[in-house]
Amino acid sequence: MNGAGVLADAPIWMQDWARSRNDTARPVDSILANLGEPPAYLKDKTIGGRSLSEQLAKTLSSNYDVEQVRSALAFIPATERSDWLRVGMAIHEAGWEGRGFEIWREWSQTAPEKYNENDQVRTWESFERPSRDGRRVTLATVFHMAVESGWTGNNSSNQNVRYQSGVDANIAVPNGGELENPVLSDDDSEISRLAKLSLIEYERTRKDAAERLNVRAPILDRLVEGQREKLGNDSKQGHALRLPEPEPWPDPVNGAELLDALAISIRQHVVMFDHAAETVALWAVHTHLIDCFGISPRLAITSPEKGCGKTTVLDVVARLVYRPLPTANASAAAIFRVVELQRPTLLIDEADTFLPENEELRGILNSGHRHGGSVIRTVGEEFEPRSFSTYSACAIALIGKLPATLADRSVPIELRRRKPDEPIKSFRFDRTEHFDQLARKAARWARDNADRVRGADPDLPAGVFNRAADNWRPLLAIADAAGGEWPARVRRAVQCSGASTSGDDQSVRVLLLSDIRAIFAERKLDKLSSADLVLALNAIEGRPWAEWHRGKGLGTNGLARQLAAFAIAPGTIRIGTGTPKGYQLAQFDDAFARYLPGREV
Question: Is the whole model's pTM more than 0.85, yes or no?
C-alpha cells in the first residue's frame, strides 16, 4: 500500500504536510522515515496526548476495510434522507467506485419503504469528488453516526477500526475494544454549527459554507435541514412529525382471535353494524401489511348527520394502525411530501369541509390507492424534476358521501346516530392500553403472515369485479389467512357493503343509465323521443333530475351531454307520423352491458 492510499482519509493538515514533501506515493515506512521535523506551526500539535509523529504513525498503520464499514452501517438506519446522503457521499469519497455503490445500495435496501433504484443511481452520479485539498464527507462520518447508534467498533473480521474525530484525531481500536468519547468530524462540526444558525444567518453564509465543504448548495441544505431536525431546532413553524410504530408482540398471535378482539373493541365505542366493525378491524390490520398489496383501499367513514361517531372511529383506529397521522385538513403538497418521507396511515377527519372543492388533493388521494402511485414536482434551486410517492393507507371521515372517484376506491362504513338506549363506552385518550396491546399483536401477526398474505389470491363473492374486487381483495386475503369464522364474515361484509350489486349509486351517469333502462322497460318501447325521456326522468321521485341545474329539471341538451360519455347521441326517429329527435333502445345495449351488468330489459 502506498502513502496516497492510507492518507486518503487523514486529517487535512496531515495531508497538506505530507503532500508538501512529495511523499504521498511512497510506502508507509518511507513516509515515516522521510517526513522529518514538522514545521513550527505544527510542532507542538498534540491529539489526545499524542505527538504529531505518533499520530501520523497511528494514521498510516490503520485503514478502513469493507467489512468494518458494513459493520458500522448495520447500526445506522437508512430511513432519514439526510443520513442517507451523508453515507452515500462518504462511501463515494472512499473511491471504491462500483463496489462502493453496491455497499451503499445494500444498506439503502434495509429501508425498503424508502428505497428507489432510480433515485439511488441518480444521486450517486450527482456526487462530485472534491479537490485533493478540499474538505470532504469521509468514512469518518459513517463511523461517527454508527457510534451514536450504539456501534462499538466490533465487527466480523475482528480487525482494528480507525475512527477520525475532532480536527484530526485518529484512534485505533484494539481487537474487541470500544470507541470511547467520539467527537464530531470536521464536516459534522461545520454542519452542526450551520444548523444552529437562524435562517437569515444561514442564508448569508450558505454559499461560502458550501464552497468550504466542497458540496453543492442544495446538498448542504439537505444536510443542514436533517441536522436541525435532530437538534429539534429547525427554525420552522409547527413541530417535526413523530409517527408511532407499535412494537410487535413478543409471542405468536392467533389471527382469528385478534380480529375478534379488534371488532369487539371497536364496537364498544361506536354504534355500527357488525359487518362495519369487522371491516374496520380488517382494514386496521391491512395497514401493517400495506407493502404486501398492490392496492390499499380507502376506508370511507360516512354519516348522514353530525354526532354519529366518525371522529371517535378515527380516534380508535389511530391506536391500532401503522404510523397513524390524524389531520382535519391538509394540502396536496403536504400529503405527498409526508407520504414520501414516512409512509403514514392518513386519518382525515371533517373531509366534507374541504375535500369536495380540492381537486388536487383528491387526485393525490386517488393515486395513492395503487402501489407505485406518484406525482412529479420540481424541487430545489435547479428545479430538478422529482417523483414523490403517494401510496399509503388512508381513512376519510365526512358527512354525506365521498366524491365519486374516491368512493370508487373505498370500502364503505356507514354510521348512524346512537339511540338513548344503545350503550357505548366513552373513548378516553388516557386509557388506551388495551388498544395499544392489540396494535402490537396486529404488528406481530402481520410480520409472521406477510408472505402468506402476499401470495394469496382469495375467491371473490359473486358479482364483485373491477375496482370493487381490488378494494376488497386485501381484506379477503387477511381474513382467509386468519381463519376461523373470518373468511365467511368478510364475505358477508362485502355483500352488505353493496359491492356485489350494480346499484344506482355508482355515479350520476350510471344512475342515469339505470333510470333510462327502467323507463324503457316500464313502457315496453324500443325508442323514445328526447322530450318524452327527460319528462319521464324528471318525474322520478328522489332522483336529482328534477332539480338538475339551479332548481330546473334536466333538459334535452343536458341529457345529450351526459350520454355523450357513453358514445350515445340523439338522432331522428319516427314515432307515428312524427320524426322527433330521440333514442333507440339498441343504442344503449353496449352501455347497459358494461355499466349495468346482470339484468335484462
Answer: no
